[in-house]
Amino acid sequence: MANISTLNSTAAGFDAVSPQVAGPSGRKPRKVLSRRNIILYGLLIVAALYYLLPLYVMIVTSMKGMPEIRMGNIFSPPLEITFEPWAKAWASACTGLNCDGLSRGFWNSVRILVPSVLVSIAVASVSGYALANWRFKGSELFFSILIVGAFIPYQVMIYPIVIILRELGIYGTLTGLVIVHTIFGMPILTLLFRNYFTSLPEELFKAARIDGAGFWQIYFRIMLPMALPIFVVAMILQVTGIWNDFLFGVVFTRPDSYPMTVQLNNIVNSVQGVKEYNVNMAATLLTGAVPLIVYFVSGRLFVRGIAAGAVKG
Amino acid sequence: MNLRALKAILVAGVMLPAAQAAATDLEVTHWWTSGGEAAAVKELAKGFDATGNKWVDGAIAGSGGTARPIMISRITGGDPMGATQFNHGRQAQELVEAGLMRDLTAVAEKGKWKDIIKPASLLESCTIKGKIYCAPVNIHSWQWLWLSNEAFKKAGVEVPKNWNEFVAAGPALQKAGIQPLALGGQPWQATGAFDTLIISLGGKDLYMKVFKDKDAKAAAGPEMAAIFKAANEARKLAKGTNVQDWNQATNMVVTGKAGGQIMGDWAQGEFQLAGKKAGTDYTCLPGLGLNQYLTAGGDAFYFPVLKDKSKSEAQDKLAETIVDPKVQVAFNLKKGSLPVRGDVDLSAANDCMKKGLEVLAKGNILSSTDQLLSPDTQKQKEDLFSQFFANESITPEAAQKRFADIIASAN
Amino acid sequence: MTLRSSAGRPSQLFRNLNSKVALIPMMLVALVVFLGGTIWTVVYSFTRSGLLPRLSFVGLDQYERLWAAPRWIISIQNLAIYGILSLIFSLVIGFVLAALMDQKIRFENTFRTIFLYPFALSFIVTGLVWQWILNPEFGVQSIVRSLGWSTFEFDPLYNSDIVIYGILIAGLWQGTGLVMCLMLAGLRGIDEDIWKASRVDGIPMWKTYVLIIIPMMRPVFITTLVLIASGIVKVYDLVVAQTSGGPGIASEVPAKYVYDYMFQAQNLGQGFAASTMMLLTVAIIIIPWAYLEFGGKKRG
User: Fold this and answer.
1) pLDDT in tens, B305-322
2) Is B259 helix (H, G, I), strand (E, B) or coil?
3) Which DSSP category does B159 fall into?
4) N or C terminus: which one in chain B shows less Cβ crowding within 10 Å?
5) Same domain (yes/no): A181, A130
6) C147-182: b or e for each residue (b if 16 or more CB lie within 10 Å)?
C-alpha cells in the first residue's frame, strides 16, 4: 500500500540508478524528484503512444471517405467526418449474397459466448479447486498433461476433435462448440484457479474439513465466495478469447449460427473492386467492441485478480 | 410469455414464408466473394430459387485455402452442407471414395450431360469408377495476359501483341512510373503464372510431359530451363506489386497503374464490373498471344450424401439448375468464364470471351493442373513458386532443380 | 461450523471419490483430447493419409520429406527468431513498464488501460491494423518520406529478410500489456519491508530489482512464461492476417505449415509429421519442467 517509506525507498533507489538511465552526459544535477518524473512520465507517455497509435489509426480511418484515404496519410485526422463506413460495416457490407454486414453475426456471437464462458469457467474452477486442495496420486500427472496441452496449436487438434464430436453425434451443434471452447480454455484457466486456491490459507480448508464439510460444501461455501477476483480474470480471458475466435466458430457451426468474426473475415477478405479500408476498420472496431468494453470497465479488477491468482504458485 | 411460446412464435414466423413456397432450404458453400463472382453466384441462386427451393448462401471469403478446410471438416464431421464448390479435379476425390458424396449419375443421364458438356474432360474429372459425382459449372482457363491500354499509351509504346513484346515494353513502362506486371502475393497466383508460361512459351507437349507424365527428366531439361529464365524476367517485372489478392492486382491493371497481369479469365469479371470495354480500355491475349492453348479447369459443385429425402431432391434440382442453358449463360457472362456446354447462345459475350470460345471450338484444350496433379503436389509447387517470385536470391537453376524433384515425386 | 452433511459421511474414501468425480471432465480432456489426440496424430504421421485418415504405413517417409522441405526449415527458423525475441522483449518491456507503473504514478488506471487494451483484440485484428500501418504506400514509410526524407525505407512486410520482425512488432503490441499486468501484480505482492531493508543497506534500486525482487517473483515469471510460450508456439492467425506467410514463404510458421498441408495439400500424413515435430519439441522442454514445477511440490 502507499506509504511514505516505500515512496522514499523508491525515490532513493531511483536516485542511485538515475545516472545510468540518463547516460553519462554530465548534465547539471537537478532536483531529484522532477528529473525522476520527467524520465518516468516521458517513458510512460512514449510507450502509451506506441500502444495508442493503431487504435487511433483505426478510428480515423474508419471515419474517412475512400477518396480521402487514397490521398492523405493514415495519421491525419479526417477532413470530413463520415459514419457511413460504420453503417455499412454493420448493416450492408456483402459477402457472397448476404448483404447485411456484421449485424447477422452479433447475436450468434452472444449465443455462443454466454454458455461457453459459463461452462468453461465452472469446469475449470472446480478442477483447479480439486487440484489445489484434494490432490490424489496421479492428479498432478493429469495436470501436467493439461499444461502441455496449452502448447498444442489448435489447428493440429481440429481433426481429432471433429472425430470426437462426430462420434458423440454433436458435430455442428451449439453444445459441440461449447465443449470445444471448454476444452481449449481449460489448461490456462485451470492453472489460474489452481494457483489461486493454493494461495489461500490452508488453515481455512483444514478447519472446514475438521468440521466435516465435504468437497462441494467447501467449494460452494468457502472457496467460491473468496474467489471473486480470479473469476473476474477468468471471465475476461474467456470473453476475449471466445469472442475473438474464428476457427472454431466456422469449423464447428453452420452458416446460420456463424459468429461475428466470420463476417469480419468475410468483409475484410472479400474485395469487391477496391479494398474499402474504412469499412474494414469500422468492422474491426465493431467486432472488437465487446471485449474492449469489458476491458475498459473491468480493467482494474483484472489486475487485482491477476495479483491474486497468478502471483503465487 | 414463457420462452417456449416465444420460440414457437419465432419458429412459426420463420417457417411461414417457407411453407407457402413448399421450399427446401439448401445450404451452398463456396468461396466466390469478389465483385464479379458474387454477381455470378446471384444468378445461380436466382435460378435455383425459381425451382421453388431456397438457396442458403454459405460464402466463406479468403479463397479456397480458407474455405476448403471448413468444408472438409463439415463433411467428415457428419454435418454436411447441401452442396459445395470445389475446383474440378482431385480435390474431392477422397471424399467421394469414402462414400460421402452423392452419386449424380441419374441426374446426369436424364439431362444427357454426356452429350452436352464440352469438353468431355470436364465430366471425366467428375467421374469416379463410372459414376458422376459433380456438376461442372464453368470452364476457367489460366492462360491470359490482361493489358491496360491506357498504361501503354502513357508509356508511349504500342499495346503488345504477345508476351515477348510485353517483356520488351517493360523498361518503358517502368520509366513512366507504371508497374509493368501485377502479381498478387497469394501463392496460387505465382504458380498459375508459371504454369501459364509453360504452355504459352513451351508448348503443349512440354506441359503434358511434365504434368501428365510427370517426366522428371523433361522437368530438369533445357526446355524447362528456358521457361525458368522467362519466369526470372517476369519476376523482375512483377517486383513491387505489394498486394495480396488477385483482384487487387487486377485492379491495378483496370486503373492503369500496372501494365499487365497474367491471370485466369475470371479477371474479366473485374474489368466488366468497372465498366471497362474489351479492345478499347483493355486487351486480352489468350495463350499470352503465343501458343493458343487453354486449360479447361474450373469449378464444380459436389453434393454430400444427406439423410433428409427432401434435401436430396433439392440437390438434384440444383444439379439440374447448374447445367441449365439459361443459368449457364447468365452465370458465365457475369463471372467471365466459359459455359460448360457448347449449345448455348453467347451472342452477348464480349471480345475476350469470344476469343476464348474460338480456341475452345478449335479443340485446343488441355486439362488443368488441378486435374493432373494431386493437391499435395500443387501445394509443393505453390511453396516453390511463391518463394521464387518473391525472393530474387533464388536462381532459376536452383528453382528448376527443386521443381524437378517435386515432379519426380508427384502423384 | 457444523455442516448438515446431506452429502454423506465424512469418510476419507467418500471425499476423495467426490473430488475425483469433480475432476472427471479435466481428466477426460487431458487423456482423451490432449493425450489421445496426440497419440492419434503421431500414429497417423507414419502413414500416407491424404484427405482422410488411413492406416497405410510408410515408415519415416513423411519425416524425411518434411526435413527436406525448404518451407519447413524457414518456418522453424522464423519460429525460433520470433520466439526468442518475443520472449525476451515481452518480459523486458513488460517488466520495465510494470516497474514504471509501480512508482506511485498518477493516472495509473489510464496508463494500464492503454497498455492492456490491445490484448482485447484478436490476432486477426492486430494483424490487419499493423499490415495497414506498415504498408509502404500509405503507412509509416510514406509519412516519413512526405516529411522530406525521400529515401527512407521501412517496409518490413514486403521484405523477405525482415518480415518476421514486422510480425514481431505487432505481436509485442498485442501481448506485452498482459505481461505488464502480471508483473505489476507480482510487484504489488512484494513485501514493503524488503524495500525498506534494501534501502537501509544502501543497495541501489536496480540491484534490488535484479537480485532480490525478480527472484522473489519466480511464480509470476512462470505463469507469464507459460502464457507467452504457449502463445508463441501457436502463432498462426497473426501471420495469416498480416502477411499470409509472404512475401513468398518468408514469414511462414510451423502451425501454418501443419494446417496448410493437412487441408490445402490434403496430405494429413505430412501435416501430422510436422505437428509431431512441434509436439516433440514442446514435450522435451515442458514435461521435465512441468513435472518439477507441479509434481514435486507438497501442497494442499
Assistant:
1) 998 889 999 999 999 999
2) strand
3) P
4) N
5) yes
6) eeeeeeebbbbbbbebbbebbbbbbbbbbbbbbbbb
Band of the pLDDT at C295, cuts 50, 70, 90? Answer: low
Q: How far apart are CA A238 and CA A232, in angstroms?
A: 10
Output the pTM of the full model.
0.86
The residues in C 213-252 lying below 8 A from B, measured between CB atoms, are: 243-250
Domain holding A158, by residue range, is 103-309
A110 and A59 within one domain: no
Given a contact cutoff of 8 angstroms between Cβ atoms, the answer to whether C226 and A150 are in contact is yes
Do residue B166 and residue B285 come from a single domain? yes
CA distance C223 to C221: 6
Task: Give Dmax over CA atoms of chain A in angstroms.
Answer: 76
User: Which of A108-117, B243-252, C68-77 is predicted with the least confidence, judged by mean pLDDT?
Assistant: B243-252
- Residues with Cβ within 8 Å of B189's Cβ and at least 6 positions away in sequence, in order, are B183, B246, B249, B263
Amino acid identity of C250?
A
Q: Are residues B285 and B333 in the same domain?
A: no
Candidates B90, B97, B383, partner chain C, best to mutate (most C CBs within 10 A): B383
Whether C138 and chain B come into contact, CB under 8 Å, resolves to no
Cβ neighbourhood burial of B19 (10 Å; 0-12, 13-18, 19+): exposed
A156 and A296 both lie in a single domain = yes
pLDDT in tens, C175-185: 899 899 888 88
Cβ(C273)–Cβ(C68) under 8 Å?
no
Reported ipTM: the value is 0.84
Q: Residue B16 falls within a domain, yes or no?
A: no
Q: Which of C56, C33, C34 is nearest to C44 (CA)?
A: C56
> Is there a single domain that holds both residue A61 and residue A184?
no
Q: Which of B349, B300, B269, B334 minimizes the C-alpha distance to B121?
A: B300
What is the spatial order of strands in the sheet that B54-59 belongs to?
B54-59, B25-30, B83-87, B299-302, B134-136
* Residue B17, pLDDT score: 42
Q: If you average pLDDT over residues B26-40, what whole number do you get?
A: 86
Residue written as grid cell 474464428: A246
d(C-alpha B217, C-alpha B405), whole Å: 10
Using CB atoms and an 8 Å cut-off, which of residues 128-187 of chain A contact chain C? 129-136, 139-161, 164, 182-183, 186-187
Number of structural domains (chain A) is 2
Q: Among A161-165, B127-131, B372-376, C151-155, where is mean pLDDT lowest? A: C151-155
Instruction: Give the separation between CA B313 and CA B311, rounded to whole angstroms.
Output: 5
Rounded to a whole number of angstroms, the distance from the CA of C159 to the nearest CA of chain B is 9
Residue in chain B lying closest to A157 (CA): B73
Residues B37 and B158 in one domain: no
Chain B residue with CA closest to A166: the answer is: B77
Cβ burial, residue B21 (10 Å; 0-12/13-18/19+):
exposed
Confidence of residue A271 (pLDDT cuts 50, 70, 90): low
What subunits make at least 3 CB pairs under 8 angstroms with B? A, C
Statement to judge: residues B161 and B191 lie in one domain: yes
Same-domain check for residues B131 and B170: no
Choose among C135, C158, C265: nearest Cβ to B379.
Answer: C265
Domain that holds residue B58: 23-140+297-356
A210 reaches C (C-beta below 8 A): no
Q: What is the dihedral of CA C34, C36, C38, C41, to 10 degrees?
A: -140
Instruction: Write the pLDDT tens digit of every residue in B283-310.
Output: 999 999 999 999 988 889 999 999 888 9
CB-CB contact of C261 with C274 (8 Å): yes
Interface test with C, best of B376, B381, B401 (most C CBs within 10 A): B376
| Number of domains present in the structure of chain B | 2
Chains touching A (at least 3 CB pairs under 8 A) are: B, C
A229 pLDDT tier (thresholds 50, 70, 90): confident
